[in-house]
User: Which sequence fits this backbone?
């Protein structure tokens, strides 16, 4: 039977989070990471860094001692690349389902077990209903996938909350036909995922590739928090994803610290107080990698400057 209680009687209202691996994105989310017990949607155009971001979050969950699962509906997971991003592939639970129904049943089963901390589904567009798989190539199946997602998310939302499991759905974008004004982009799978998601992240390339000389070594990615039920939305973070190794947390910290005014940048020189970190961002990052204490001090200053919600909450608990 259902229970009723006063909200003030709950011992803790703070949401448990899993860091994203990028301090800039953690700050943009306003709570220090991806919320546990909730549904998160990461969507955007192709080759924009969606799967890389999701795998980085899995790696962070494993670093905290958690168990991570990857439901590979696209059948495109590269274990070697995942390992380079910091994922312990030997401990990662992987499923490659044949149908959309099977994929969502696996997600529900994992969530109900209470033994998994974060589940990634890659991707919603690849969750093909059984009726469509068994039908012929030209058959029309109107609204089948949307109905499937709606039914599954109705069940999943409560299960995820009770087990404190984060579910990350990666989604692609499509274009609506005949839209003359406004944004023609939409996401597959109907509207249910938009409603049930506590956080929606729009991930796409921004600007030119990162180059060393004439060689492209990475891409710049803009992440916009389109929906956020736990903090103010519409904040943005710019990430740098390097080919073959993903996000560099120290380079990310340098970018955030410069934006926050903690690290000073004069021309191409970076400095922090009396410390001259180096000429160029790469040299500054190398200097900080060799000095972990200084790195932690800068991180603490950035969090202090940004008025980090998690930091404030922990201080209040300590009083």
Assistant:
């Amino acid at each position: 039977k259902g229970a009723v209680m006063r909200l003030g009687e709950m011992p803790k209202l703070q949401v448990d989070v899993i860091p994203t691996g990028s301090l800039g994105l953690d700050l943009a989310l306003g709570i220090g990471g991806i919320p546990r017990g909730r549904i998160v949607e990461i969507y955007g155009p192709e080759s924009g860094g969606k799967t890389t971001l999701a795998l980085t979050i899995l790696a962070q969950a494993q670093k905290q001692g958690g168990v991570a699962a990857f439901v590979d509906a696209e059948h495109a997971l590269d274990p070697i690349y995942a390992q380079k991003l910091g994922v312990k592939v030997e401990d990662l639970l992987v499923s490659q389902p044949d149908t959309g129904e099977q994929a969502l049943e696996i997600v529900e089963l994992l969530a109900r077990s209470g033994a998994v901390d974060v589940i990634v589904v890659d991707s919603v567009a690849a969750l093909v209903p059984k009726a469509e798989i068994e039908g012929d190539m030209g058959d029309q199946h109107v609204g089948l996938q949307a109905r499937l997602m709606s039914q599954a998310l109705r069940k999943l939302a409560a299960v995820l909350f009770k087990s404190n499991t984060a579910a990350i759905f990666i989604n692609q974008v499509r274009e609506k036909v005949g839209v003359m004004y406004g944004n023609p982009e939409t996401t597959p799978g109907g509207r249910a995922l938009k409603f049930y998601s506590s956080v929606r992240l729009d991930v796409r390339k921004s600007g030119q590739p990162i180059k060393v000389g004439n060689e492209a070594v990475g891409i710049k990615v803009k992440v916009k928090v389109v929906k956020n039920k736990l903090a103010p939305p519409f904040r943005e973070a710019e990430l740098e994803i390097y080919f073959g190794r993903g996000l560099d947390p120290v380079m990310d910290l340098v970018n955030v610290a410069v934006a926050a005014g903690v690290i000073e940048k004069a021309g191409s020189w970076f400095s922090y107080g009396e410390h001259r970190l180096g000429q160029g961002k790469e040299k500054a990052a190398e200097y900080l990698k060799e000095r972990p204490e200084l790195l932690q001090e800068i991180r603490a200053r950035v969090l202090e400057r940004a008025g980090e919600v998690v930091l404030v909450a922990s201080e209040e608990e300590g009083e």
In short: Confidence is low (pLDDT under 50) at residues 308-319. The domain at 248-314 is CATH 3.30.250.10 (Rec A Protein; domain 2).
